């Protein structure tokens, strides 16, 4: 909102409108700001430019003839209206935005990439949630290993507070699945000599760019990431981080039982992670593996159950026999940009059709629609393949 005493001289710089503005304020109670050091209006009062634009015809007056009043109304109305933009200008704006958009990284599942408009985005906090043995870790491995395989100038960090990282599984995923798939699609990793490396050699070279550490506390994890982002002796750029699992790192039991101190620590940690992820110089895609537990389960004694209306909504929209909830509490959903929920398919499709299959559902998406699902199968703990 701009006072008319300031706005109209800008719109008509060659005209002296002071007498007309004085008349509007004195006789017709249209605030112009000519006699007020600072324009203030009650919350229910329209701004003065709107007052003038929609004012009824005023009685003629020597200080404000009808032609001048019509001209002032026209000036104010034009200023209030949204300006028309040419198609060429809008096209250029779109091109400029695309040039500034952050990179998208494949999820290793084609249909999920389509649902997410290109995959996971640099600068995002991504929650990979699910019950135990639902394929969360393998899915995260596929994401980070495919990312390193496709981007030879990037590196990644894997934080393993539970000490369960399996390097041989990573080698098998790269050597036996991802590298052969890319070769079959026509991909090339030939060096200067024009020769394609053997899958084993390419897998080992890719793993050289994955830094694995085992922090025991959230503060240790932040120190590790700070050291990785500030590393000076490496030519590759850190672009992806995986924490497997966040429950172990921040104390899932305490958070599940409703510890206020635990929730405060979780919020503080995730805010720090968000700051690291959204760095303007080196944004990171951060995947945090978390656990989903049955909605009614509890590891500690509680009081009487809340009324039905007080129960938090289940994580999934799928008709699961046991609705799920995040083990880190309902607040956690608001600390991430994107959430995918992995659930075993047996409860949905039966023990035969659902065996070895997992349903992945997008349960939160700050930049698009949620609710899409993708089904994949996992064989031998290594071979993950999307089902059409």
Architecture overview:
The protein is of the alpha/beta class and 388 residues long. It contains 14 helices and twelve strands. It has helices at residues 4-11, 18-28, 48-53, 66-80, 87-100, 110-115, 136-150, 167-184, 199-207, 218-229, 246-250, 252-256, 260-277, 346-353; strands at residues 104-105, 120-121, 125-130, 154-159, 210-213, 237-244, 285-294, 324-326, 338-344, 357-365, 373-379, 383-387. Strands 3, 4, 5, 6, 7, 8, 9, 10, 11 and 12 form a ten-stranded mixed β-sheet that branches. Strand 10 and strand 11 form a beta hairpin. Helix 10 (218-229) runs parallel beside helix 13 (260-277). It is elongated, with a radius of gyration of 30 Å. The protein starts with a helix and ends with a strand. The model is unreliable at 34-47 and 298-310 (pLDDT under 50). GO terms for molecular function: ATP-dependent activity, acting on DNA; four-way junction DNA binding; single-stranded DNA binding. It is found in: Nucleus. InterPro entries: HRR_RAD51_Paralog, P-loop_NTPase. Residues 297-323 are annotated as: Disordered.
């Amino acid at each position: 909102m701009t006072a008319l005493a300031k706005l109209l001289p800008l719109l008509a710089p060659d005209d002296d409108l002071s007498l007309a503005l004085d008349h509007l304020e004195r006789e017709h109670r249209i605030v112009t700001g000519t006699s007020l050091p600072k324009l203030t209006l009650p919350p229910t009062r329209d701004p003065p430019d709107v007052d003038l634009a929609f004012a009824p015809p005023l009685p003629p007056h020597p200080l404000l003839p009808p032609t001048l009043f019509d001209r002032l109304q026209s000036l104010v109305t034009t200023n209030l209206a949204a300006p028309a933009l040419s198609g060429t200008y809008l096209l250029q704006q779109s091109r400029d935005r695309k040039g500034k958009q952050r990179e998208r990284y494949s999820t290793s599942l084609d249909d999920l990439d389509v649902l997410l408009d290109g995959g996971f985005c640099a600068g995002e906090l991504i929650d990979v949630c699910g019950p135990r043995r639902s394929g969360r870790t393998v899915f995260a491995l596929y994401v980070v290993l495919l990312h390193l395989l496709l981007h030879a100038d990037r590196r990644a960090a894997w934080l393993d507070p539970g000490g369960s990282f399996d390097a041989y599984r990573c080698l098998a995923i790269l050597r036996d699945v991802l590298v052969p798939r890319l070769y079959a699609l026509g991909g090339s990793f030939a060096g200067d000599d024009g020769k394609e490396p053997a899958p084993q050699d390419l897998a080992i070279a890719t793993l050289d760019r994955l830094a694995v550490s085992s922090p025991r506390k959230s503060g240790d994890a932040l120190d590790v990431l700070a050291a990785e982002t500030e590393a000076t002796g490496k030519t590759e750029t850190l672009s992806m981080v995986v924490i497997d699992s966040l429950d172990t790192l921040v104390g899932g039991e305490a958070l599940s039982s409703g510890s206020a101190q635990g929730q405060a620590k979780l919020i503080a940690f995730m805010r720090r992670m968000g700051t690291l992820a959204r760095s303007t110089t080196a944004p990171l895609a951060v995947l945090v593996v978390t656990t989903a537990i049955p909605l009614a389960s509890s590891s500690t004694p509680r009081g009487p159950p809340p009324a039905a209306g007080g129960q938090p909504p289940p994580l999934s929209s799928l008709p699961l026999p046991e609705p799920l909830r995040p083990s880190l509490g309902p607040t956690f959903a608001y600390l991430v940009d994107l959430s995918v929920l992995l659930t075993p398919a047996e409860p949905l499709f039966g023990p035969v059709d659902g065996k070895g299959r997992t349903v992945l559902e997008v349960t939160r998406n700050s930049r698009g629609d949620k609710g899409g699902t993708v089904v994949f199968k996992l064989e031998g703990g290594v071979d993950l393949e999307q089902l059409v």
